[in-house]
Specification:
Blueprint lengths: L2 H21 L13 H5 L11 H12 L21 H13 L10 H18 L6 E5 L2 H16 L3 H5 L7 E6 L5 H8 L7 E4 L9 H13 L3 E8 L11 H11 L2 E5 L24 E4 L1 H4 L7 E5 L2 H8 L30 H36 L3 E3 L7 E6 L7 H18 L5 E5 L2 E7 L7 H16 L8
Parallel strand pairs: 2-3, 2-4, 4-5, 5-6
Antiparallel strand pairs: 1-7, 6-7, 8-9, 9-11, 10-11
């Protein structure tokens, strides 16, 4: 493709992109295809001869788009959102055009220095103390793995990197059952073993119990283990649980344990001063992560990972073959030493675009609007006799279930709610996800999509009520 053809095709695709964002509501929220349907539409062999971009793009619209779940749809209330925004999309276009591999300062000075500056902007915006230094990871999962690896090395005086796990005592990690599964995955990858991940009980509000944590730590020490890390959650996936950092941090300090905080979703809300109560005890935290790609209108992937002691992270991950040496070494930051992958994208650019385009006050207004809508939705659930809240609302996350007054059988309630979720998602009008709360099947309703307005939330609630009451096995139907 020559540059003039590229120019013409790029203009055509940008027009399509703008039309897509304008008309995304016309699509079903969740892809309405069956397994294998998209693969069946794609040729089994690659083309031998070049094909025109016009034909390729036509096939994209005909064969690929039906299999896309539309995360930018304003009726997307599933999981936690991966919201984006026009400024972020524009920055991604520039990033793709530059095609920079930003592993060293030398390979992209602008990417390195912008990342440092923008992560400090974000630190200021969220009220984090200036003892924290930031780096952009691909995901909260990547940041959790980095924390576990760093904790492993600190707990063993960096012996594992040198001699392997066989040379050190059994290492243990601690988290609650509300914590994201990325913690267990990180523990496995780091070689600690899933059996050494201790699941700490939670209280009635789904928060980790510090007394139970300390009891487990004492038990493990008595058995000859070395406690390495506690992973606390602020806004955990299931019901948005918030762990009490201060008592947990005091325990970690007492026993010399690394404390990491996973705030992947809720951390973006810290740009609102009224939400910062949740990091009372932040002075005990060694590292934390939150994802601007979840609730700060920045395209995936962009996870803000803050560490108290960057040298510990670098010492854990650094490796220096000849080809990675540069004359600027020691004078600049080389972010390839701050994460597991060597290669790095120019992720800071989209965050820079978003913060500058909306301003702090604009971003605050958008997140406050989502929380206000969730408060309204919570009220509707509470006031409807056929539904019940199963956990307190957490910011913009409401967890509830359908419970007709005549129905008392828990197993049948689980069946009804599962059928409700499937019916809603199969309709294409709304997308929600399920969870289990103390064993009960429940529905998560998370408001955070960039384009969501009150009318979308009202329409979703109407669809939920109508669909629930029309279920064939509903005792109230």
């Amino acid at each position: 493709m020559d540059i003039e053809t590229f120019r013409a095709e790029a203009h055509r695709m940008v027009d399509w992109m703008a039309d897509y964002l304008s008309n995304v509501e016309s699509y079903p929220v969740r892809a309405q295809v069956k397994p294998g349907e998209i693969a069946a539409a794609l040729p089994g062999e690659p083309p031998l001869q070049p094909e025109t971009m016009e034909r390729i793009f036509d096939d994209f619209q005909r064969d690929v788009m039906p299999g896309v779940t539309h995360w930018q749809h304003p009726s997307f209330f599933a999981y936690f959102t991966a919201n984006s925004s026009p400024p972020s999309v524009l920055a991604e276009m520039l990033t793709a055009t530059l095609g920079a591999q930003c592993m060293l300062w030398q390979t992209s000075p602008a990417a390195t220095e912008m990342e440092t500056r923008v992560l400090d902007w974000l630190r200021q915006m969220t009220g984090l103390p200036d003892v924290f230094t930031g780096v952009i990871q691909d995901s909260a999962s990547g940041a959790i793995l980095c924390a576990i690896l760093t904790a492993r090395e600190k707990a063993t005086d960096w012996a594992v990197n040198r001699d392997g796990l066989k040379a050190v005592p059994r290492l243990t990690a601690y988290t609650s059952g509300e914590t994201h599964s990325a913690t267990e995955k990180g523990v496995k990858i780091a070689g600690l073993g899933a059996e050494n991940l201790r699941i700490v009980p939670v209280d009635d509000g789904f928060s980790m119990r510090p007394d139970a944590l300390e009891a487990m730590i004492r038990e493990d020490i008595a058995a000859g283990a070395k406690p390495a890390i506690v992973v606390a959650s602020l806004g955990a996936t299931g019901v948005g649980a918030v762990d009490p950092l201060r008592p947990i941090g005091e325990i970690c300090k007492k026993y010399g344990i690394f404390l990491h905080v996973d705030a992947a979703w809720a951390g973006s809300a810290w740009i609102l001063p009224e939400t910062r109560w949740m990091f009372d005890g932040i002075e005990y935290v060694d590292s934390l992560v939150f994802n601007p790609h979840k609730w700060l209108f920045t395209n995936f992937d962009c996870a803000a990972h803050y560490v108290r002691a960057p040298d510990d992270l670098i010492k854990t991950l650094t490796i220096l073959p000849e080809f990675l040496k540069s004359r600027e070494q020691g004078q600049v930051i080389d972010y390839r030493d701050w994460s597991v992958p060597l290669g790095r994208r120019f992720r800071a650019l989209k965050l820079w675009f978003v913060i500058r385009s909306y301003g702090v006050e604009g971003l605050q207004a958008m997140i406050r609007a989502h929380i206000d809508l969730a408060e309204a939705f919570e009220t509707w659930v509470r006031e409807d006799a056929a539904f019940e809240l199963v956990a307190p609302r957490s910011l913009a996350l409401v967890t509830f279930r359908f419970r007709p007054r005549e129905e008392a059988d828990e197993a049948h309630l689980d069946v009804l709610n599962e059928r409700l979720v499937n019916a809603l998602n199969d309709s294409g009008s709304v997308y929600v996800t399920q969870t289990r709360v103390r064993g009960q099947y429940a529905i998560r309703f998370n408001i955070g999509q960039t384009w969501t307005e009150r009318r979308h939330v009202e329409a979703a609630w109407a669809a939920i009520r109508e669909t629930a009451l029309a279920l064939p096995e509903s005792a109230s139907g």
